[in-house]
Automatic annotation (TrEMBL):
InterPro entries: DUF3000. This is Enoyl-CoA hydratase. It comes from the Bacteria. It holds the Pfam family DUF3000. It comes from Knoellia flava TL1.
Length: 194
């Protein structure tokens, strides 16, 4: 995993976090790609994007998102620790959900449930849930209305296992995509190499 860090300075903690991320086994519907990490936010960073695809052989994108893990040994005050997970998840929903006044609360609950479901310990959680409604007019009037939900969230991981935070975020992506949760004790068989 190529990452961004300060030249000439290694962080054993960040190296261990990268190793944990490398060993995460995600559902076969989730395809991960490493992308350039943000600059100037923290001395150490890694960024991943993901697409949740439909059933085997179906390349329809059901959801997409980004997971960024930041490490700053100086523990910036707003973070409340040395680590920060910054995430984004987006999916198209059924048009009738556009008017649902609880859609924001539902989206945030999906995140909270994903973290709790993986036993993730975190602090300083923050985020937004946005719905985007698109209607077409004139020459595009035959297109149906579409609704997208975006969940943007960040939290400060407590504990050393970055992989569990990545798993919780991927659970959120799968929930937004409409995939049913895997039953307790069932592990998804590995799909093609990501």
């Amino acid at each position: 995993m190529a990452t961004r860090s300060l030249p000439g300075r290694e962080s054993p903690e960040f190296t261990a976090a990268l190793e944990a991320l490398r060993h995460v086994r995600l559902r076969p519907e989730v395809r991960i790609t490493e992308v350039p990490a943000p600059q100037r936010i923290a001395p150490y960073a890694v960024a991943l994007t993901a697409d949740v695809l439909g059933s085997a052989g179906d390349d329809e994108e059901l959801a997409s998102g980004r997971f960024v893990l930041l490490h700053d040994p100086s523990a910036p005050e707003p973070w409340g620790g040395e680590w920060r997970a910054v995430t984004f998840a987006r999916a198209e929903l059924e048009p009738e959900l556009a008017a649902d006044p609880l859609l924001g609360e539902v989206g945030w609950t999906w995140l909270v449930d994903a973290l709790a479901g993986r036993g993730v310990s975190a602090t300083a959680e923050a985020g937004t849930v946005t719905r985007v409604v698109s209607q077409s007019f004139a020459g595009l009037a035959d297109r149906p209305a579409s609704v997208e939900m975006e969940v943007r969230a960040s939290w400060t991981p407590i504990g050393p296992d970055a992989g569990t935070h990545l798993l919780a975020w991927s659970d959120l992506l799968c929930t937004i995509a409409g995939l049913p949760p895997l039953p307790e004790g069932v592990v998804a068989l590995p799909g093609p190499r990501r």
